[in-house]
């Protein structure tokens, strides 16, 4: 159903840049602004369907801030990646962390007893580390749920109680404490306030919407599309949390954090490889998408794992889950990852639909960009909104020049402004007079073209 003006409200931002955390040492960022955006906006409220279509065009959200990376300019191009949850079969190595964790929870033992930990909160002492067989592998869902108390027989007596529950994204001191510990231990980031945590991982513009299952779904599956926290508890203690968006066509991973104490249950892989907990979270999110699809969620079937960044070795693990696909940065068609890798190996910017459009030239990147006069004005001028940027700047930052006031792309686009009495008024953009202001037109141009004309017609741009 097509959205009505005012249902989805966003504030358009100018295209810009930031430092990059993918090509720098752990806990550091690039010295210059080498990660570029071709479009960005603040989403006040948007439907889950709108956001699904946005991420299919390369957008991503961080809290209520939504951005579309400029792959041609950025030092580390970010390609949208999705995994077909219906066709995914875990490899033996991917099943190992499930088995290891299940053995610890159920029997109180691990493969390496020197790595076993005293949880300290269990009412029952851990049983001797005598290897015991788990149920044979049948399905991913069955293996993952095997160690959850709610899926065990009523007379079960596991060594530890383990639960995984979904709840709508909300703040708690317990979650903040876990986030602070994770950021400090893993990312060497020691300054995280409640406000920063809420803005990053709690606040969401997504409007909850009922999922139309044909029959009542199992109680552990979500009833609504929207933003969720997936809580992992061992003996009542919060030890990990996944932040996910559940959308009409996918489960979208936003962030995952865990108590690093539990890294002792890792597989001893190199630092560039994900921890067992990160692997477990990915497998649980795959299983969630598949279980929802099997329960009848109409379009569900994929796990979106954020961005695939070939130039960043620590991000390549996402490609180990198959079959995965990358979105073409120009046509937004999906291409099998295996056909994309050879193109990315040879080029900094890779176009999969038309490989000849790929580019290995990075001369326009650091540090020359900081020395351009128009760039200095665009980024640093204190009166940015009163100073239109040049067409050269617009072309470099977004890949297109500023649209003209009568451009077809602005047809049926609506804005929201404050009326004389302080109330909000919906207006047709072309009839509003705002397009004569070049800085407004440039900002809206980047968003309209980044969103695509169909989505742009279904959102309302709020203008202060």
Structure characterization notes:
Keywords: Acyltransferase, Transferase. Belongs to the R-transferase family. The chain is an alpha+beta fold and 464 residues long. The chain folds into three domains: 9-75 and 362-462, no CATH class; 92-169 and 204-320, no CATH class; 328-357, no CATH class. Helix content is 27%, strand content 22%. The chain is built from 13 helices and 18 strands. The strands form two sheets. Strands 1, 2, 3, 4, 5, 8, 16, 17 and 18 form a nine-stranded mixed β-sheet that branches. Strands 6, 7, 9, 10, 11, 12, 13, 14 and 15 form a nine-stranded mixed β-sheet that branches. A hairpin with a 3-residue loop joins β11 and β12 (250-258). The model is unreliable at 111-122, 266-272 and 363-390 (pLDDT under 50).
- What structural category characterises the helix and strand content? alpha+beta
The number of E-state strands comes to 18
Helix content: 25-40%
Q: How would you sum up the major sheet?
A: 9 strands, mixed
Averaged pLDDT: 86
Number of domains: 3
- Count of separate DSSP helical elements: 13
Proportion of residues in extended strands: 15-25%
Contiguous low-pLDDT stretches (5 residues minimum) are 111-122, 266-272, 363-390
Cα radius of gyration in angstroms: 24 Å
Shape: globular
Distance between the termini: 29 Å
InterPro entries: N-end_Aminoacyl_Trfase (IPR030700), N-end_Aminoacyl_Trfase_C (IPR007472), N-end_Aminoacyl_Trfase_N (IPR007471)
GO molecular function: arginyl-tRNA--protein transferase activity
Domain N-end aminoacyl transferase N-terminal: 18-96
Enzyme class: transferase
């Amino acid at each position: 159903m097509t959205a009505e003006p005012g249902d989805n409200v966003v504030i358009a931002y100018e295209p810009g840049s930031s430092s990059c955390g993918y090509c720098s040492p752990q806990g550091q960022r690039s010295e210059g602004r080498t990660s570029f955006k071709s479009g960005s906006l603040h989403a006040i409220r948007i439907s889950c369907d709108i956001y699904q279509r946005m991420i299919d065009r390369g957008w991503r959200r961080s809290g209520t801030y939504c951005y579309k990376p400029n792959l041609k300019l950025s030092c580390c191009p970010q390609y949208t990646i999705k995994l077909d949850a219906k066709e995914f079969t875990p490899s033996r190595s991917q099943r190992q962390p499930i088995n290891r964790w299940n053995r610890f929870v159920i029997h109180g033992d691990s493969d390496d007893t020197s790595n076993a930990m005293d949880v300290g909160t269990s009412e029952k002492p851990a049983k001797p580390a005598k290897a015991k067989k788990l149920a044979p592998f049948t399905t991913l869902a069955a293996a993952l749920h095997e160690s959850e108390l709610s899926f065990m027989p009523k007379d079960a007596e596991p060594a530890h109680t383990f639960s995984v529950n979904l709840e709508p994204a909300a703040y708690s001191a317990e979650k903040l404490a876990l986030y602070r510990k994770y950021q400090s231990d893993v990312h060497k980031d020691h300054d995280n306030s409640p406000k920063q945590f809420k803005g990053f991982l709690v606040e969401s513009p997504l409007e909850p919407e009922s999922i139309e299952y044909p029959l009542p779904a199992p109680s552990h599956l979500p009833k609504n599309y929207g933003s969720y926290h997936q809580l992992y508890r061992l003996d009542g203690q919060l030890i990990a949390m996944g932040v996910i968006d559940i959308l009409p066509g996918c489960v979208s991973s936003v962030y995952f954090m865990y108590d690093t104490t539990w890294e002792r249950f890792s597989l001893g892989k190199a630092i560039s490889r994900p921890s067992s907990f990160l692997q477990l979270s990915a497998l649980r999110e795959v299983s969630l998408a598949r279980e929802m699809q099997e329960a009848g969620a109409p379009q569900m079937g994929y796990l979106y794992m954020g961005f695939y960044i070939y130039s960043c070795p620590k991000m390549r693990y996402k490609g180990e889950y198959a079959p995965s696909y990358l979105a073409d940065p120009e046509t937004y068609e999906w291409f099998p990852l295996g056909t994309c890798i050879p193109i990315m190996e040879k080029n900094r910017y890779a176009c999969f639909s038309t490989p000849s459009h790929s580019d290995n030239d990075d001369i326009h990147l650091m540090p020359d960009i900081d020395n351009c006069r128009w760039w200095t004005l665009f980024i640093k001028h204190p009166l940015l909104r009163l100073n239109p940027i040049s067409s050269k700047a617009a072309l470099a930052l977004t890949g297109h020049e500023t649209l003209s006031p009568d451009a077809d792309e602005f047809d049926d686009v609506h804005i929201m402004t404050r009326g004389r009495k302080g109330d909000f008024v919906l207006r047709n953009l072309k009839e509003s007079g705002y397009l004569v202001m070049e800085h407004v037109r440039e900002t809206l141009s980047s968003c309209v073209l980044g969103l695509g004309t169909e989505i742009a017609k279904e959102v309302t741009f709020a203008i202060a």
